[in-house]
Amino acid sequence: MKIFIPTPLRSYTEGKDAVEVGASSITEALDTLTQTHPELRKHLFTGEGKLRAFVNLYLNDEDVRYLPEKEQTAVSAGDTLSIIPSIAGGAGNGSRA
Amino acid sequence: MSILFLTQAVFDSIRAHGEATYPNECCGALLGRATDEGWRVVDAVRAGNTRSDSAHNRYSIAPIELVQIERKARQLDLEIAGFYHSHPDHPAQWSKTDFSEAHWLSCTYVITSVEKGKATLTNGFLLTGPNEEEKRFEQQTIRIED
Asked: To the nearest 10°, the Cα dihedral for A28, A30, A34, A40?
């Protein structure tokens, strides 16, 4: 399957915007990705090995959080996985930190 | 100070978007190319603000919309260079909320102040640093070019 890499993480994939991996589940795909590109791991996962809260995963057009089997969902060669850090903010109540 | 290159059309578009959504915040993505001198942004893609509960001082872009924007960028042979949003009746400076919610390292965050419905100052801030824990915003010089 193809994993799409967001702009901030491309410096850890030799500038590539997509990485092809052989995997049977999302977890396996991420494991393979981070074994091939070890520097990615700390940007995607916490020290406890959990996916960072601001990292969204989309299998094709589906939010992985809402798939019944989440990251254990089976994947096939034609699937795509998008890694998308969240985007939010706003003026809020105060000024700059 | 690093430079952020915007086309006049992009600059006008993001400011017009801020005026159009006033008194609420607008938001969108900036598409461009990385060069030795910094990001050269050639397209601004408007996005919906999902924070309907507090749209006057908060914004959020639905991740599925980001997936679609990234797909569009690939088709155009461009990258997501960063994002923009407006601060209605608030300075064009990053807020604590902007900082804590910023996760696209190496990308630019452009903020336009919209006062009483009229776009005033537009500033660009590069989110830099080696990782999430050591990130920081650096103000950029915006240069308009065609």
From this structure: -170
Q: Which of B81, B88, B103 sits opposite A54 (nearest CB)?
A: B103
Minimum distance, in Å, between the CA of residue A86 and any CA atom of chain B: 7
Contact between B57 and A17 using a beta-carbon 8 Å cutoff = no
Burial degree of B42 (CB within 10 A; 0-12, 13-18, 19+): middle
Strands B79-88 and A18-20: unpaired
Of the pLDDT bands very low, low, confident and very high (cuts 50, 70, 90), residue A82 is very high
Interface touch A85/B103, C-beta < 8 Å = yes
* CATH fold of the domain at B3-144: Cytidine Deaminase; domain 2 (3.40.140)
CB atoms B58 and A63 under 8 Å: no
pLDDT in tens, B23-33: 999 999 999 99
pTM recorded for the entire structure: 0.96
Which domains does chain A show, CATH number per domain? Answer: 2-85 (3.10.20.30)
By C-alpha distance, which of A78, A79, A74 is closest to A59? A79
Q: Measured between alpha carbons, how far is residue B13 from residues B27, B28, B44 in Å?
A: 11, 10, 7
ipTM topping 0.85: yes
Contact A94 B74 (CB under 8 A): no
Instruction: Name beta bridge partners: B136.
Output: B128
- Smallest CA–CA distance, residue A24 to chain B, in Å, is 22
Closest C-alpha to B27, from B146, B144, B114? B114
Q: Where in chain B are the domains?
A: 3-144
Say if residues B141 and B114 touch (Cβ distance below 8 Å).
Answer: no
